[in-house]
């Protein structure tokens, strides 16, 4: 389940933030997304909406910090707090 | 609280770190009026030297145009120096109203309100018109002032990959539950010089019930057949809801900006936008000169036509030399060098050859995308451009980058 979620989130991040012709950006479960400049803080909102819809959860705004969204592994940990 | 030794040390170390990271910005002192040729003191304390300026936003060459200077003198004589007031108390003269009406006609909108700068227009517009029920969907390469303005508003914020229409459409679909969707884009992107795909954006906005805000600062006065902007270029004048633009670039280059667009949105800016409410009115001398600028460029397209010819000639010349350019059709022509140090060295060597063109690197552009951004002007004559091309050839040869593409340059110099 966790592995599946990790891959889903990774795939979303790749589609959302990496250009199709970009063969240079390396992305894995621990790649720093926000501090690494891959995800801009603006579009964190759509990442949050995606997670909430996909997993039928509500992430409080106070928890949706740049730190909590800074890697696929951290995002998965956050989501699991609400999926139980 | 006193300014303690600890505070001085702390702030001082931040400045040192900026310097050590190679990100410290030095001012170069110019001892002449802005123009194609300027007298520059660089490094500070050196004797001045005359160089060709290839990095001003003086697109139409109006910064020091005799008619504009004369209009500024007349404005100073007849309407005084300062307004000592914000607009809505006692800071609005007849010439402010004239300028707003002329800009409305020129931009093909319904109404216009002036701001002290376009930075202020962008800082104020979003908060004035949108609330928490709305969403702003911005191109990821919009200007820093737009990002600041979006942060100040209560609307939801989202972004799409640069000029990626498929991605924008996904975002429009994602946010159909919001009251209003506002797509935000620059007309010409200042670092790459590319144009927004405004015809496609308009089509998507109409299909998905969204409004459009266009920052045309690097376009007003010269993009489009009669210089109205990127909306004219794509034949969508009247279909853009908000245009923000500046008087600080092509339009005389002093200062001032505006929000222009749908009547109600402009009125809301007059009632609510904080940089309009809490900052002084534009000074009469600038307003008077800007009125003359709009008259000049409404009468003839001579200057924008010359700028277009210059940009084409310059781009073709650099390509022939073998430099790696960002493709485009605007008078912003970036010469790609990818490596920050190479861009700085290249710029310094150009200066030694009498050419003033600065290097741009992180954080102004993404890491590994350092460049020399050249900007053309209608003030340039062919001789200026030929001297510029000769200098680029010489400095390019010195660094061994002629004929090399991105991969080869990065392989040699790193990114």
Index terms:
heterodimer, A: 84 residues, mainly alpha, 3 helices, 48% helix, B: 415 residues, 4-stranded mixed β-sheet, globular
What does this protein structure show overall?
The complex is a heterodimer of chains A (84) and B (415). By secondary structure, chain A is mostly helical. Chain A is 48% helix and 0% strand. Chain A has 3 helices and no strands. Chain A has helices at 2-17, 44-55, 72-83. The longest helix of chain A has 16 residues, at 2-17. Chain A is globular, with a radius of gyration of 12 Å. Chain A starts with a helix and ends with a helix. Chain B is α/β, with parallel strands linked by helices. Chain B is 44% helix and 16% strand. In chain B, the strands form 3 sheets. Chain B has a 7-stranded mixed sheet, sandwiched between helices. In chain B, helix 5 (118-129) crosses helix 10, helix 7 (165-174) runs parallel beside helix 8 (198-207) and helix 13 runs parallel beside helix 15 (382-399). The mean pLDDT of chain B is 96.
Layout of helices and strands:
The complex is a heterodimer of chains A (84) and B (415).
Chain A: H1 2-17, H2 44-55, H3 72-83
Helix pairs in contact in A: 1-3
Chain B: H1 5-20, E1 29-30, E2 37-41, E3 49-53, H2 66-79, H3 87-90, H4 94-107, E4 111-115, H5 118-129, E5 135-139, H6 144-152, E6 156-160, H7 165-174, E7 181-186, H8 198-207, E8 211-215, H9 230-233, E9 242-246, E10 257-261, H10 263-272, H11 274-277, H12 284-299, H13 302-321, E11 332-338, H14 340-352, E12 355-356, E13 359-360, E14 370-375, H15 382-399, H16 406-413
Parallel strand pairs in B: 3-12, 5-6, 5-7, 7-8, 8-9
Antiparallel strand pairs in B: 1-2, 2-3, 4-10, 9-10, 11-14, 13-14
Helix pairs in contact in B: 2-12, 4-12, 5-6, 5-10, 7-8, 13-15, 14-15
